Amino acid sequence: MSVMSYLGAIGAAQREAMEADERVVIMGEDVEANVYGTTGGGKSRSSEGDFLQLFGRNRIRNTPISEEGIVGIAAGAAMTGLRPIVDLSYSSFLYMAMDQFVNQVAKNRYMFGGQASMPVVFRSAMFYGLNTGAHHSDRPYPMFMNVPGLKIIAPASPEDAKGLLRAAIDSDDPVLAFEAVKLWGLKGEVSDEAFRIPLGVARTARKGTDVTLVAISGSVPDACAAADRLAEEGVSVEVIDPRTLVPLDTTAILTSVAKTGRLVVVEPAHRTCGAAAEISALVAEEVFDALKAPIVRLTAPDMQIPFSPSLEQQMYPTRDGITAALRRVTGLKPA
Amino acid sequence: MRTDISTSTLLEMQRRMTRIRRFEERAAKMVKRGLIPGAVHTSIGQEAQVVGACMALDDDDYMTGNHRSHGHPIGKGSSLGPLMAELVGKATGVCRGKGGSLHLADFSVGSLGESGIVGSSIPIAAGSAFASKILGRPRVSLAFFGDGAANQGVLYEAMNMAGVWKLPVIFLCENNQYALSTPAHTVTSGDIFERAAGFGIPGVRVDDGQDVLAVYDAVKTAADRARSGEGPSLVEVMTYRFNEHSEGLRIDNYRDKEQVGEWLRRDPLDYLAARLRDRGVTDEHLKALDAEVMDEVDRAVEFANESPYPEPSVAFEDLYTDEVTAV
Ligand SMILES: Cc1ncc(C[n+]2csc(CCOP(=O)(O)OP(=O)(O)O)c2C)c(N)n1
Ligand SMILES: [Mg+2]
């Protein structure tokens, strides 16, 4: 075991995968200089662990700022023998490549009757909550959940970041990895062994009996903190981090709600058609009879993200907001 | 007249062009009779452009295409039965009945897929070339696209990356002078082939795209260049589609009758037949070739007719390669 940051864990997974399989290549804007911190040992070319030194330009390659072309080229390469990891830097830039994601990456295997496989990983970072303004703060994973054929991971701990990324790279299907920048510095124990966390298996971050709190990506630490507060007041909160949004571990969520009878879902994406909406609908359809209180969704509102710190703060679910919602559904008086 | 191409290669070109012609004539008839659902776009009139390009490639070279989709796999050597079965939506279709006319793919001949989205498959071809380069595979890739697609931005993103990385890919613009009803010159600034210069790669125009050998020569030069590691080329081929944009569309107010008539006289099959006769190939031989192809098309239609429709459960297969149980 070593203590690693979330970002360090991603870098470690990439290095392991590059060392294990020659077909794994990394492409993206500014990856050679390790600008985003997952393709090298440090900020200098001479630091130990620099990917360009280790693997050469055939395996790691800067691309021009051409997201649509990059995604398409990675898809074509994946269909014909490579296993690319594409670093798209900001999640907001995925929209530039929407046609390739939706019409080629997600559809080719299906449309061609199974002739193609698409082993490619598209990583991107969600820079929300960092005063980057509306053009850089997107959390667009729900849009992609609406595209059959893509798999989606959203790890929220260093351990999960490493294990899920290895599984994503192993997958013969296209995986989109959404990494919340507010988690980058998060530290945790990570196994030094090469390990995988299977896609489609949720993590129970806190065991509990009174209420199920499903939390996604950057909301997970806040959810755990809120659960710890409630524990002090004698309310037992079960925190579930799906980790993989497609395929979704529906069993873990439904089993938990069947036990607790209450559901709060928290995520940083917009409200309409978000992951929280999907999970709420699932629970309402499948275990309605178990519910003792209405389902509560905590999300960003259906509003663009403002720049000013004084304005942006209020846009995402907070620890206090989650705590209040947990009190409400469990019948506790507001603090 | 060129002598370095053997008569048997010329005959193979004629055979492939005839296979496209007869297959599509039959498909057009079947659309009229309601036997093929969905849209069908034929390459009739453009066979030289398709076959000249495909024959300049090796069998295991890669290729992507567009909505004008049947010529490409046929030109690359696909068998007609599974293609026809795909057009009618049968289980034995090359894509198990899930692609249809617009989305044919036949990986067995290097056909990585046609695309219903104009321009969308171009980077796929470039990506396959990227894989070949990284993996040290001596394969070339070719992207077929129209004059309409030449105005999609993704083409230039792909051309730029192919140029700077010297990818073994050929961008082949089938300039049939219209994008549906829109004359190319009314929406296209400058000449398409000249755009290559901006990327520092060769760009050539084949002015007589009805001559299969002219196309073959241009694409062969590009393929040799790509295979020897010198990078991509853009080849623009001037041609004309003889039929409507898509079968049964019944919009023909945008091309003047005289122009259509003039082009109908420039039939790529007649062109090559004349050359073959010059080489001493007899009319009987050419007739026999046509009859063989007609027979092949008959058998393809029979195969399609006799094949079952896919089971409903097939609609729920092939989304993922890995076993996925949780969705
Ligand atoms: C992105 C996109 N825009 C528009 C269309 C509708 N459409 C289908 S074919 C076509 C014309 C394409 O022209 P061109 O690329 O020259 O090919 P051609 O049909 O002439 O072979 C259009 C506009 C489409 N399928 N995809
Ligand atoms: Mg056209």
Characterization of the model:
By secondary structure, chain A is of the alpha/beta class. Chain A folds into two domains: 2-190, Rossmann fold (3-Layer(aba) Sandwich), CATH 3.40.50; 203-330, 3-Layer(aba) Sandwich (Rossmann fold). Chain A has helices at 6-20, 51-55, 67-79, 98-105, 108-111, 141-145, 158-170, 219-232, 250-260, 275-286, 309-312, 319-330, and strands at residues 2-5, 24-28, 60-62, 83-90, 121-126, 151-153, 175-180, 187-190, 203-206, 211-215, 237-241, 244-246, 263-270, 296-300. In chain A, the strands form three sheets. In chain A, strands 3-2-4-5-7-6-12 form a seven-stranded mixed sheet, with helices on both faces. A five-stranded mixed sheet of chain A has the order 9-11-10-13-14, with helices on both faces. A two-stranded antiparallel ribbon of chain A has the order 1-8. The radius of gyration of chain A is 20 Å and the shape is globular. The mean pLDDT of chain A is 96. With 327 residues, chain B is α/β, with parallel strands linked by helices. Chain B has a single domain, classed as 3-Layer(aba) Sandwich (Rossmann fold). Chain B is 41% helix and 9% strand. Chain B has ten helices and seven strands. Chain B has a five-stranded parallel sheet, with helices on both faces. Chain B has a two-stranded antiparallel sheet with strand order 4-5. In chain B, helix 1 (7-32) packs across helix 2 and helix 1 (7-32) crosses helix 10 (283-306). Chain B is globular, with a radius of gyration of 19 Å. The mean pLDDT of chain B is 97. Chains A and B meet through helix 3, helix 4 and helix 5 of A and helix 5 and helix 6 of B. The complex binds thiamine diphosphate and magnesium ion. Residues 67-68, 116-118, 146-149, 174, 176, 178-180, 245 of chain B line the site of thiamine diphosphate (TPP).
List keywords for this structure.
heterodimer, A: 335 residues, alpha/beta, Rossmann fold, 2 domains, seven-stranded mixed β-sheet, five-stranded mixed β-sheet, 12 helices, 35% helix, globular, B: 327 residues, 7 strands, binds thiamine diphosphate, binds magnesium ion
